[in-house]
Amino acid sequence: MIRIIYIFILCYFVLGAVGFYFINRKKEKAIARKSWTKFGIYFFIINVLFFSIVINPVVFHILSVGIVLVGVAELFRLYKKSGFESTLFFGISILIYALLAAGFWKFSGAGKDLILYTFIVLSIFDAFSQIGGQLFGKRKLAPRISPNKTIEGTLGGGGVALISSFFLQRLLIYEFGVTFILTALIIVFAFAGDIAASFYKRKFEVKDYSTLIPGHGGFLDRFDSLIAGGAGVTLFLMFL
Fold first, then answer.
1. Most CB within 10 Å of its CB: which of 39, 56, 108, 129?
2. pTM reported for the whole predicted model
3. Percent of the chain scoring above 70 in pLDDT
4. Quick one: DSSP state of residue 125?
């Protein structure tokens, strides 16, 4: 089953590479090279997290702590860089982040199959939202908060993720109706987390949280939706 899922992921990466080809073919070489670098780094990150879950979920549990701690550091870094302005906003943001981080940490200790399912759905949603937005996006979703996010891209990414849940259902013990609700909840939380992270950056007038991940920015630029999506799964389990 794991082998089939990994092949499934590789097929999506092939589709993503095709999409990147059409996105980059008319761009300047320097910009296209940066885009392909981002694609390559993303492939590496997905593989690291995938195998950390598959080989030993405890590894992913440990990685989740690192992601959360670096995220806190990046939030504080922007606050400090601003000269410690907007203290109330920073305090509220830290509180919200702490709640999401606690939910994400709880999720990271769940069963391997549930973690893997969530991770794949989040990756599909995130990747195809970006690719779909760059290929077909025309209407800005939240131009003042996240200028590159489009309605077409978000709906496309969500649609692909929901369709994929049909093929990934065997990972879970739930009926498809419950799985569909879970998938929708993951997408909603991931989207909300992404928007919230972007809003925080706009408040402190920066493009990225840091430069730790080439082509992506900081840990929160890359893992904001994973943290929020994982927290959404924890909420789902509480009311299941």
1. 129
2. 0.94
3. 100
4. H
CB atoms within 10 A of CB 77: 15
172-178 long-range contacts (CB < 8 A, ≥24 apart) are: 172/113, 172/114, 172/117, 178/240
Retrieve residue 149's tokens.
């996010």
Cβ atoms 231, 99 nearer than 8 A: yes
For 155-180, the pLDDT digits (tens) are: 999 999 999 998 888 888 888 889 99
Let me know: does 122 contact 226? Beta carbons within 8 Å. yes
Distance of CA 70 to the CA centre of its chain: 16
- Angle among Cα 16, 223, 66 to the nearest 5 degrees reads 135
Structure tokens at 62: 């440990």
Q: Measuring CA to CA, which residue among 21, 48, 80 is closest to residue 226?
A: 48
DSSP string, 65-114: HHHHHHHHHHHHHHHHHTTS--HHHHHHHHHHHHHHHHHHHHHTTS-HHH
Quote the CA–CA distance of 10 and 15 in Å, as a whole number: 9
In whole angstroms, what is the distance from residue 128 CA to residue 131 CA?
A: 5
